[in-house]
Amino acid sequence: MSVPAELRYTEEHEWVAIDGGTASVGITDYAAGQLGDVVYVSLPTVGAAVTAGDPCGEVESTKSVSDLYSPVDGEVAEVNEELDDDPGLVNAEPYGAGWMFRVRLPAGPGGETELPPGLLTAAEYEELTKSAG
Amino acid sequence: MTEFAGWLMPLRYGSETAEHNAVRSAAALFDLSHMGEIAVTGPGAAAALDYAVCGWPSALAPGRARYTMLCAPDGGILDDLVIYRQADDRFLVVANAANTAVVLRELTERCAGAVVRDDTEVTGLIAIQGPNAPGILSRVTDLPLDGMRYYAGASGTVSGYPAWVARTGYTGEDGFEIFCAAGDAERVWAALTEAGDRDGAGLPAAGLAARDTLRLEAGMPLYGNELGPDVTPYEAGLGRVVRLDKPGDFVGRAALAARAAEGPRRTLIGLVARSRRVPRHGYTVLSGSSEVGVVTSGAPSPTLGTPIAMAYVPTGATGPFGIDVRGNTEPAEMTELPFYDRRKQR
Question: Which of A74, A70, A71 is nearest to A103 (CA)?
Answer without folding.
Answer: A74
